[in-house]
Please model this.
Amino acid sequence: MNFTGSTKLGELNLMLRTIMIRRFKKDVLAELPSKDRQLLFLQITDKEKKLMTERMSGVKMETMIRDFNSPTTIDFFSRSATAKTGAVKDYVKELLSAGSEAKKKSDGDDGDDEGGEDEDQNKKVLLFAHYKVMMEALEEAVQEVSKTNPLD
Model:
C-alpha cells in the first residue's frame, strides 16, 4: 500500500489502540459462526445505469484489475457505490427491521418456550463499506430503523 503523504501515523496508532483489538483470524476462527453469504440483485435507476455505462466506455476490465489504484478504477467503484446506495439501504432496513420485529415478538411472548430463545434475536449484523457515500447510506438506514424499532 502506498501511504505517501500520511502524517501523524504514530498518533493515530496510539489512539486506535485504546478502542480497537487486533487479533489474527487463525486465532479466533473457531469462535466465529459460519459465514452467511447472500447474492442480492439490486435495482438501479436508468439514470444510474447510464452514468455507470458512460464511465465504463473505453475501460477494459483487465486494465482495472491490473491497475487497481488508477483514477479510472477508483472513480468507477466510487460511482458504482453511489448507484447502489438506495438498494443497499432498502435491504439493510428490511434486514434490521425483521430482526427487531423478531425481538419484540420474543420479548412480548408469554408462550411456554421453556427458556428457548429465538435464533433471530441473537443474530448480529456486520456492515462493511469502503466508500464514504456507502458508509453514510448504511448509517442513514440504521438510524431510520432505530427510530421505529429499537436496536441493541
Notes: The chain is about 55% helix and 0% strand. The longest helix spans residues 71-108.
